[in-house]
Amino acid sequence: MSALPPAESSGTHVERFTLDFRTHSTSLAEMRRSFDSWLVSAGVDDDVAYDLLLAVNEAVSNSVEHAYPPGADGRVLISAHLKADGTLCAVVSDDGRWRVPPAALSGRGRGLLLMRENVDQVVVDRTSRGTTVSLCRSPRTRRSEALDDRQDGHEVLVEERDTGVLVTVRGDVPAGTGAALRRSLLTAARGGAVPVVVDLGDLGDETAGAVHAVFAVADAASAAGNRVVVLARPDTPAWDALTASGVPHVADVVSPIG
């Protein structure tokens, strides 16, 4: 493992970090210590640093487990930089062949969920030459989001199946309760790694929060090579809101049978 010198610096804050991680000879503990040392030298807020460190650890673990055959000395490149506004971003890339976890529910697939739970942006780019995961965590406090974690007025039922998960949402989901539903959907879908069907057939008249939540899980599923199916009845507030907002471009919106 070799931690390269920072590409740029400003005052006492190191702005860039680069690490060449070898899957056969470098331990995750060594990687974490090296990255944590850089975070301290960069003066990153403890909460922001901890969240990104967890996400980077999961991204590197995915590359080690899924991109290369067991025992292979694969290469994973890790880079990170601190933006002027305090946003911390990292990129984890490999040149292996990353495999999407199976649809059947298991302990696999939680890495992508954990990444999405700890940072604000996760972008996965898979090509024949390898996989790149881009992660960003802003310095904003999460208190405002916590205040928006209400679930008043709606019910979420999760049914695990052999081929994925069925999530049924009942009642009103105004914008103020969308954060809670978004987290419920992302958790059920393991961050998008598990196929999910969202049943909005019994959604109430207030739909803004549900639409935002569906967009979030559809984006996560797309990054994992899946596509969300949304069940909604034509000529209902749910159907009208979904079609008007463009959800059919990112998910399959269909009418339930019966």
Describe the structure.
The chain has 258 residues and is an alpha+beta fold. It folds into two domains: 2-137, Histidine kinase-like ATPase, C-terminal domain (Heat Shock Protein 90, 2-Layer Sandwich), CATH 3.30.565; 143-254, 2-Layer Sandwich (Transcription Regulator spoIIAA), CATH 3.30.750.24. It contains seven helices and 13 strands. The protein has helices spanning 28-41, 46-67, 110-118, 143-147, 178-188, 208-223, 237-245; strands spanning 2-4, 9-10, 13-14, 16-22, 75-82, 88-94, 121-127, 130-137, 154-161, 164-171, 196-203, 229-231, 252-254. The strands form three sheets. Strands 1-4-5-6-8-7 form a six-stranded antiparallel sheet, covered by helices on one side. A hairpin with a 2-residue loop joins strand 7 and strand 8 (130-137). Helix 1 (28-41) runs antiparallel to helix 2 (46-67). The chain is elongated. Pfam families: HATPase_c_2. It comes from Umezawaea endophytica. InterPro entries: Anti-sigma-factor_SerPK, HATPase_C_sf, HATPase_dom, STAS_dom_sf. Residues 25-136 form the Histidine kinase/HSP90-like ATPase domain. This is ATP-binding protein.
